[in-house]
Amino acid sequence: MSSLVKLVQTEARLFVRDPTSLLIGLLLPTVILVGLGAVPILREPSADMGGARFIDYFAPSVIVMSVAVIGLTTLPAVMAGYRERGVLRRMRTTPVHPGKLLVAQLVVNVAAALVSALLVVVAGRLAYGVPLPRNPLGFALAFVLGITAVFAIGMLVAAVASTARAASGISTVLFMSVMFFGGVYLPRFMLPEAVARVGDYVPPGVQTLLDSWNGESPDAVQLLVMAVVAVAAGAASARIFKWE
């Protein structure tokens, strides 16, 4: 078994054993969706949303939460904590390059974000009949680019934060911003028009998820922005990341 596979297995076990990562990262978005759906009025068609139900409209925003909570909070804090405790420095004295630990963290956390998003979709469908994405290919493309952009930003935070506390502080600001622009705190139709338009281009790009969820094609410019953010943040994090 290769060292990378062993690292992935180890990081996966650590993730599962951490109640904060498991409960907040994996389950909280689904719990929020199920809890909101339990309110009868939120399962009724609304004129403000073109006849759609609030629970249907809100599902993509909950997926934004599932991606952001792992990519912008869990991943940066763990990597900064490893650096602060000297884990990365000690790994440099072994045959296993610390870069493999970075890859293992990305694999585990991306997988966790995918599972979290899948739980939201399945729970919404089974509990309240929330429709599946009507443009699955467009939704998959928007989701992949969006999650890549978010995780690239998360790695950039991990690169610039010297301690877990610093990473947590930066991540909290970014996470709250993504939640606001993503329509988690307030539905996007209640936001000022200018704010909602800014939110169209804030990773992971909630509008592209909404469009493809409703059967439309995601906006090419918004997808391009997600790709540019992913490349720029990823390149910057790779350039400035310090192992100790």
Automatic annotation (TrEMBL):
It is found in: Cell membrane; Membrane. Keywords: Antibiotic resistance, Cell membrane, Membrane, Transmembrane, Transmembrane helix, Transport. The keyword Mitochondrion does not apply. InterPro entries: ABC-2_transporter, ABC2_TM, ABC2_TM_bact-type, ABC_2_transport. The chain crosses the membrane at residues 21-42, 62-82, 102-127, 139-161, 173-191, 220-241. It is a multi-pass membrane protein. It holds the Pfam family ABC2_membrane. PROSITE patterns: ABC_TM2. It comes from the Bacteria. Residues 20-244 form the ABC transmembrane type-2 domain. Belongs to the ABC-2 integral membrane protein family. This is Transport permease protein.
